[in-house]
Amino acid sequence: MKLIILLVTFLLLAIFFGFGLYQYKNPKADNQTTNQNIADQLLEIERYDSRVNEQALRNRYNLDNNYDKLAQSISLLNKSISDIQNIYIKDSEATDNLLHKKFKNLSNQLEIKKDLIENFKSHNSIFKNSQLYAPIVGKELIAIAEQENLQDAVKNYREIIIELLEFSLHGSSTNAMKLNLILPKLLESEKQMPEFAQSASIEFINHVNTVIKEKSETDNYLNKALNSKSQKQISELSKAWKEQLVKNINADEKYNIYILWYILFLLAYIVMMTWLLRKKYSASSI
Length: 286
Description:
Elements: H1 2-60, H2 68-89, H3 98-147, H4 151-170, H5 173-192, H6 198-226, H7 230-285
């Protein structure tokens, strides 16, 4: 009777222990699924980050008329970062582990990049406005100068419009120097222009100066955004996640070994108890 009670007690304990192992195993299975999906999530972040670069360049060179596509790409990038944090990163085992540090580095770098893009958009809008209106005002001044037979003024306005267009698209510091050399000539031409053209002349010079200044600011912020370390941080996060994956796989392998030993021990115990029970009842029946 005591052997039966002992066997039943052990079986009950084995069931509870097995249930505990099952509960422990379930999160491991979830982690395995997570490890399968994380690569796709990182590729998505990398894709949206590249798309932000592409859309910013399209805005810089007037291939897109507004910032809607750029804003959409930034929104998708933000969502991807939020998803990977909420679904994967926050539930990992320790908030101070390598995975969290790499994710934090990536998040910080992308925040810096988004600030650079916002500054780019602000300066680029001012730049594009003056880039658009400077030739329009310049052509009005050329027409007035032609009517007044001011050939030097006509020449100066035409020269600076051509240089300004070249500078706006592909300009370098050399083009900027040419523009700055021509500007004093415009001041001389302004004195020769009729009084009713003075405001247009001032407006034209302001637009030219704005193009020179804002192009520098625009290109500066854009270049910093395009050369940010976001792609590097994505690669480092991917590497950290692979290390986490190897760690989880090793933990699962150890766990499976423990399960195997537990099953073998349980079988051995059941065999032993069965043998003892058979021996006891065989002795009782004699």
